[in-house]
Structures are given as C-alpha cells and as structure tokens.
Specification:
The chain is built from 14 helices and no strands. It is mainly alpha-helical and 219 residues long.
C-alpha cells in the first residue's frame, strides 16, 4: 500500500513537471494568494505565514501574486497589508510586494523624510538607495522625486549634507557608476587608479563611485 502511495506521488510530481512553466507559475501564485488570504482571516493575522510567504519570493513572482490577488479579491495586495499590519512591519511588507520603481521611491522618501529622522536626512537609508541599486534605477527615482516635489534633489542634498557624505551622494546621484554586467576587470586601470588615490586621497570617492564592485576589488 505504501509503495502504491509513493508511486502515485512520484507520478503526480512527474505530471506536474511536464506542465508549461506559465501554468505552473500561475498555479503557484494562486496558491500564494489563498495562503495570504487565509493567514489574514478572522481576528488578527498569522504573521509567520505572512512573512514567510512574502520574504521567500522574488520581485517578479510577487508581482504575479499581487496581480492574481487583485483579480481574485478585487483589491490590491497592498490593501490587505494596510488592513493587517502596522508601522515598520507594514512598511516592510509593502516594500516587498510593490514594483521596483515604487520600492525605490518609498526608500528615497524614507531617506528624505526629516519629520521622522529628527530633522535630518536618514543617511543609512540614503546610502542603501544610492549604493544598492542599479544606476538606471537611481536616475529614474531621482527624476520621479523631482517631478513630484518640484525641487532639485541635487540642491536639496547639497543643503542637507556635508563633507564626504555630500560628495558621495552627489556623485552617485548622477547614476554613472559602472555595473557588473560581465566578470571582466581591468588590472591596468586598477593600478593607475590606485596610484591616483595615493597621490591625491581626495579622489578616492570619484574612483569608488565610477567603478563596478568587481573593479573596486581588483588588486
């Protein structure tokens, strides 16, 4: 009997693997929709299930889940999060499920929200925004922020920051940093840049902000 059950399980997996990828993805995203909805039924929510579901999926898949949730329940997934979570917990959940451009805007707004940062720019959030995103995303978020606030982000950060942090932020804000689109590095360039920094330490930030991470690590 156990052998027959095992055989059926193996056959079920085999049949599933023969399905087209889009069918499997659709079924899995719909399963997540029902998992999230079930976790939030009744009084309170099952935070363990909610966090595990949201934090173990990539952005692309979560976009599918969000689309499927709207189609099934006629409201955005963000609405469910707003109803069931609060504070930084809610911020984290929404940050995970929104599209990259919206997530970038949320982080930039957080960095610049002086009301919640004791009257100052949140340097940690700003550093994460500038350093942990592709330069193309930095430029796009900058453009969107300036359009929404009718203000130059460069001028704003020039006024709010000073010293090396100002230079670092304004340089990275240009969005011209090289990226690791290949594994190739230039040892000759690295040696020349090292000599340049040795002769003039003030050039360190310019060099750091123009190279890809792998080039920066080149001996």
């Amino acid at each position: 009997m156990k052998n027959e059950t095992a055989k059926r399980a193996v056959q079920d997996v085999h049949d599933l693997l023969k399905l087209p990828d889009d069918v499997i993805t659709h079924d899995l995203s719909q399963l997540d929709v029902e998992t999230l909805a079930e976790a939030c039924r009744g009084s309170g929510s099952d935070d363990t299930v909610l966090i595990r579901t949201l934090t173990t999926r990539n952005k692309r898949f979560l976009a599918r889940v969000s689309h499927a949730y709207r189609h099934t329940y006629d409201e955005p997934l963000g609405a469910l999060i707003d109803k069931e979570t609060k504070g930084w917990y809610a911020y984290m959940c929404k940050f995970l499920v929104v599209q990259e451009a919206q997530a970038d805007a949320m982080l930039l707004d957080l960095a610049l929200d002086k009301k919640h940062n004791k009257g100052q720019v949140d340097r940690k959030a700003l550093t994460e925004f500038l350093c942990a995103r592709h330069p193309r995303r930095v430029r796009a978020a900058k453009k969107k922020w300036e359009a929404a606030n009718d203000e130059s982000l460069v001028d704003m950060l020039s006024d709010e920051l000073d010293g090396d942090m100002r230079q670092l932020a304004l340089t990275l804000l240009k969005g011209k940093r090289a990226t690791d689109e290949s594994d190739e590095t230039d040892a000759g360039l690295a040696a020349a840049q090292a000599k340049r920094i040795y002769k003039d330490p003030s050039t360190f930030i310019d060099v750091l902000c123009s190279n890809s991470p792998s080039q920066v690590e080149t001996p």
